[in-house]
Amino acid sequence: MRRGLALLPLGLLLLAVAEFAVFVAVAHAVGFGWALLMIIVSSIAGLMLLRREGVRGWRAFRDAAESGRPPGAQVSNSLVGLLGALLLAVPGFLSAAAGLLLVLPPVRILVRRGVERATERRVSSAVAGDLFGPRHVRVHQSDPLADPAPAGPVSAGAPGEVVQGEVVEGEIIR
């Protein structure tokens, strides 16, 4: 994690150089005034979208919390929308293109799922269950003679049967 943070200034410098190069290329192609106008319009649109996404995300989180549903899906969806709006608000063609992609529903859904998977890997299963609801897992019984690994306390009904449950410190609660 620290290694990634150490490379952050270099990444931001490379992004600034790339943004400047793209701006010069666009200004050369369509004219400086038009390029500047496109940057200003995309930044204003990003700021308006930033406000809308923030309000929408807060309402979705509050509604989920009040109804007793896990708020994780609403939070991750809002984070992706806010990131897209923020990238649109930052002056530059590359950041605007990335922000616009994150605001589009198909890309937003894919990125949201990625955020949820990354969160599930970094937090305990109990916290992931609180955030995103119960996880559905498929439990397969194996032949103890064929598999030398210890079976432990995991036991399901018929082979291949899907059992909904919650794993708490190595035990299955049905």
Tell me the overall shape. elongated
Distance between the termini: 37 Å
Question: What structural category arises from helix and sheet content?
Answer: mainly alpha
Rg (C-alpha, Å): 23 Å
Please tally the helical runs, counting DSSP H or I stretches of 4 or more residues: 7
Q: Mean pLDDT, rounded to whole units?
A: 82
Q: Into which percentage range does the β-strand content fall?
A: under 5%
Question: What number of structural domains do the residues give?
Answer: 1
Q: What do these coordinates show?
A:
The chain is mainly α and 174 residues long. The protein has one domain (12-137). The protein is built from seven helices and two strands; from the N terminus they run H-H-H-H-H-H-H-E-E. A two-stranded antiparallel ribbon has the order 1-2. The longest helix has 36 residues, at 32-67.
Descriptive keywords:
mainly alpha; two-stranded antiparallel sheet; elongated
How is this fold's topology laid out?
Layout: H1 2-6, H2 8-30, H3 32-67, H4 72-89, H5 93-103, H6 105-122, H7 125-132, E1 166-168, E2 171-173
Antiparallel strand pairs: 1-2
Helix pairs in contact: 2-3, 3-4, 4-5, 4-6
Short description:
This protein has 174 residues and is mainly α. The chain contains 7 helices and 2 strands.
